[in-house]
Write a structure and sequence with these properties.
about 240 residues
Length: about 240
């Protein structure tokens, strides 16, 4: 009897990898301004899927029953994509700056408090001046009881709202699945890479894959050395400086 793709161990793996992936994304984008989630395909879940697929190769060879199957890898990938989409560029990263903006930049001159504060529900925004100053000016930490109290309620409310939006989009996709897949036969090019990574080890035996990977890795390595050591010539592939 075939084991289900959405297995318990796939969910456990996904839940264990969620905080790691989201933390990686947060540090890379908020601290180093990578904005990788602005791309059509999220880089972080694909990298985790790549590592899992590579790690499964020797296990599949010597202990095939213990290796993660394609469906399990895709289950983990979908979980990571869902979590990444909530904290991604253009979602929570921008949201928390927007909801704190009115209180932080209200002054007697612009009179924002009298103009529109009464229209902002108190449960949607943090209004503690100390927590806002720490958020904008630094020199403190989120892990202070006063700051956590100020941010917990709006984070919970907006988090539930964002999850409902994602759930709604999944429902819309379910309604459109037959039209898109069976009738129009759309190919969905963005998901071809994750599907190829999850399906079999033949993906890693593709000569074209390694040629393309080698070219991109060489350019990235040279540009990285150019940043660290300006004497090393770089390869300018940017659309703008």
């Amino acid at each position: 009897m075939a084991r289900p793709s959405v297995s318990t161990r796939a969910i456990v793996f996904g839940l264990a990898l969620l905080p790691i992936t989201v933390y990686w994304m947060s540090v890379a984008e908020l601290k180093y301004n990578s904005q990788a989630t602005a791309l059509p395909i999220f880089v972080y879940p694909v990298c985790v899927l790549f590592l899992l697929a590579v790690g499964s190769l020797p296990i599949r060879r010597y202990w095939p029953q213990a290796a993660l199957r394609s469906g399990e890898l895709l289950t983990i990938y979908v979980m990571l994509v869902g979590a990444t989409s909530l904290g991604a560029y253009g979602m929570m990263q921008d949201l928390f700056a927007v909801i704190a903006h009115p209180y932080q930049y209200a002054t007697p001159e612009n009179d924002w408090q009298a103009l529109f504060f009464r229209y902002i529900p108190v449960y949607l925004t943090p209004d503690d001046p100390a927590a806002l100053d720490a958020y904008y000016e630094g020199g403190s930490s989120l892990h202070v009881s006063r700051h956590l109290r100020a941010w917990a309620r709006p984070a919970l409310v907006w988090g539930v709202f964002a999850c409902l939006i994602v759930w709604m989009m999944l429902c819309v996709n379910t309604l459109l699945r037959r039209q898109w897949i069976e009738r129009e036969r759309l190919v969905f090019p963005i998901v071809q890479l994750p599907l190829a990574l999850a399906r079999s080890g033949s993906f890693f035996r593709s000569r074209l894959l390694w040629i393309g990977f080698g070219m991109v890795a060489a350019i990235d390595l040279i540009d990285g050395l150019h940043v660290l050591y300006p004497a090393v010539p770089g390869i300018n592939v940017k659309l703008y400086d």
